[in-house]
Design a protein that fits this description.
- The chain has four helices and four strands, in the order E-H-E-H-E-E-H-H.
- A four-stranded mixed β-sheet has the order 2-1-3-4.
- By secondary structure, it is of the alpha+beta class.
- The protein is 42% helix and 13% strand.
Length: 99
């Protein structure tokens, strides 16, 4: 079964997840949703009703940075995960209080 990325086209966090999956070369199915009309299948996969959501064989990953890390752990051809600890701290700062 291919991973399924549930996404919304204009969501910047979903864009980040799509970019990471494409960069890593991970084969996946993309399902775009309308957030104003959440289908029951989407809510079953993501009880929080948020995008992006990555549905794997068992776990569901529903934070864009976690999806990014998962994708890069599968394949990271240019070494993006080799950034300095300060890079991770910046991501955490902008993902945390910024949201």
């Amino acid at each position: 079964m291919l991973p399924i990325l549930i996404s919304f086209q204009r969501c910047p966090y979903a864009i980040r997840a799509r970019m990471a999956l494409r960069y890593s070369g991970v084969q996946r199915e993309l399902r775009e949703v309308l957030l104003r009309n959440k289908a029951p299948g989407f809510l079953k996969a993501s009880p929080s009703g948020t995008v992006p959501t990555l549905v794997l064989a068992h776990p569901v990953v529903d934070e864009s940075f976690d999806i990014t890390l998962w994708a890069l752990e599968q394949s990271d051809p240019m070494g993006w995960l080799d950034m300095l600890e300060a890079g991770y701290a910046l991501v955490e700062e902008t993902d945390g209080s910024f949201k």
